[in-house]
Design goal:
This protein has a two-stranded antiparallel sheet. It has helices spanning about 25-50, 55-60, 70-75; strands spanning about 75, 85. The protein is mainly α and about 100 residues long. The radius of gyration is 20 Å and the shape is elongated.
Length: about 100
Amino acid sequence: MFGAFRPTSVNLGGLLWKIPWRLSATRKANARSRLKKVDSVIEAVRASGVQCHALDEALALPKEHEMHPRDKYTVFTPHARGYRKGIHKVPKWTRTTNRTNPRGF
């Protein structure tokens, strides 16, 4: 009962990886710097003179300084009450482009 294989308490069980409700200031700063780095890479590729469809799509995206904070840190979801959820709750959010949302959201 009190040994190595004792049953866990109900309030201690549950999801192993807990996701915080909101982004910390450090994680927001890291997200902003990541957006700025992507913007600099897109600008460097544009300055090199390369022409491709992917570059045209990347140039159509808003830059980090043009984005509203709501768009930097949240994404559209039809399942949430306010139709937004924190970007850190999106799977692989550091590797995907989440700069655009549906109109009106």
